[in-house]
Design goal:
Blueprint: E1 6-11, H1 19-32, E2 37-42, H2 57-70, E3 78-82, H3 88-97, H4 102-106, H5 109-116, H6 126-140, E4 145-147, H7 153-170, E5 178-180, H8 217-225, H9 242-255, H10 259-266, H11 271-297, H12 300-329
Parallel strand pairs: 1-2, 2-3, 4-5
Bound molecules: tryptophanyl-5'AMP (TYM).
């Protein structure tokens, strides 16, 4: 078998997966999975960087894994794993953290955004070191490409810098990965429907702004109908407001149409019709995912088995990388008893 480039990506099991996660990450993963050797991870340790409910995290982790498969990730083609099942993620994160300057982490805009809204006496330091764990996730598998949405670009740049620094200080060890953003042409930054200056987010913003992958069809339609546009009545492609531009972008991502086709289809069309057509496309994409999701979650044992096999396959590779990393760092190897 020809060696294919390695892809690694993941989602946090915090909040509910939404249309931004689907268009910015999941769909690109699915459409390109046959080109690569893939690891798709449910990053449960990252979900602990903001307050969490210990009684909810297991169910959320299974839910995200089931949504990966329901969206088209094939466990025979791609390795599906839960981050905490492979302890090497946390170990590598510690070692990389010791080589990552504080200043690099202080510049992370996601950290600044998330910590600004909270009292520093109450936020865990995991929120600060979060991007180092993300770097560990990626570097453990000697990853070539990381397909993510636009909001992860800065974290990917940091990951590259950490890999380069480690290789420079301790010897060539890690593949320096590349972000893969916007490969599908649209959907790498889906904005909130009720506040289109902000991205659609699992954890921030109101319910009205977020199309959840498990929302019923009538709620999806109602949210699109209430989406913020502007005081005009019909689409003017020369200067669409942020809200209208977002609806057009979502339509483009869902339909695969080009900018020209979108122009021909929507110039002068009333906002009501635009919203209905975007809702139709979103529902057509999401309903089959929901049907498959219900089947998968009715059989949690099979899902757990897939995740067990994924963790075992991933750990083989992770253990190999860690062996080399420990030796580069200079740690004393443990001898068998
Ligand atoms: P997370 O869980 O916030 O989001 C998962 C993926 O969805 C993309 N995404 C979006 N794309 C378009 N429009 C949006 N509104 C939108 N919101 C989210 C994200 O870019 C991401 O690709 N730090 C990561 C998780 C992570 C990770 C990793 C990713 C941990 N380790 C290693 C890649 C590789 C995060 O919080 O994603």
């Amino acid at each position: 078998m020809v060696d294919r480039p390695v892809v690694f990506s993941g989602m946090q099991p915090s909040g509910d997966l939404h249309l931004g996660n689907l268009l910015g990450a999941l769909r690109p993963w699915v459409l390109e999975q046959h080109l690569f050797h893939n690891y798709f991870c449910v990053v449960d340790l990252h979900a602990l960087t903001l307050p969490w409910d210990p009684k909810a995290i297991q169910a959320k982790t299974r839910e995200v894994a089931a949504l990966y498969i329901a969206s088209g990730i094939d466990p025979k083609t791609s390795t599906l794993l839960v981050q905490s099942h492979v302890p090497e993620h946390a170990e590598l994160s510690w070692l990389l953290g010791c080589l990552t300057p504080m200043g690099w982490l202080e510049r992370m805009t996601q950290f600044k955004d998330k910590s600004r809204r909270r009292d520093s006496e109450r936020i865990g330091s995991g929120l600060f070191t979060y991007p180092v764990l993300m770097a560990a996730d990626i570097l453990l598998y000697q990853t070539n490409f990381v397909p993510v949405g636009e909001d992860q670009r800065q974290h990917l740049e940091l990951t590259r810098n950490i890999a380069i620094r480690f290789n420079h200080l301790l010897g060539e060890t890690f593949t320096v990965p590349e972000a893969r953003i916007g490969q599908m042409g649209a959907g790498s930054k889906v904005m909130s429907l009720d506040d289109p200056e902000r991205k659609m987010s699992k954890t921030d913003g109101s319910d009205a702004g977020v199309i959840r992958l498990l929302d019923p069809a009538d709620r999806i339609r109602a949210k699109f109908r209430r989406a913020k546009t502007d005081t005009g009545q019909a689409v003017e492609l020369d200067h669409p407001s942020a809200g209208v531009a977002n609806l057009l972008e979502i339509y483009r991502a869902l339909s695969g149409c080009t900018q020209e086709e979108i122009g021909a289809q929507f110039e002068g069309v009333g906002y009501g019709r635009l919203k209905d057509q975007v809702a139709d496309r979103a529902i057509a994409a999401i309903e089959p995912i929901q049907a498959r999701f219900r089947e998968l979650t009715s059989d949690p044992a099979t899902l757990d088995q897939i995740l067990g096999q994924g963790a075992a396959a991933a750990q083989e590779v992770a253990a190999r990388t860690m062996q080399e990393v420990r030796s580069r760092v200079g740690l004393l190897p443990a001898q068998p008893a």
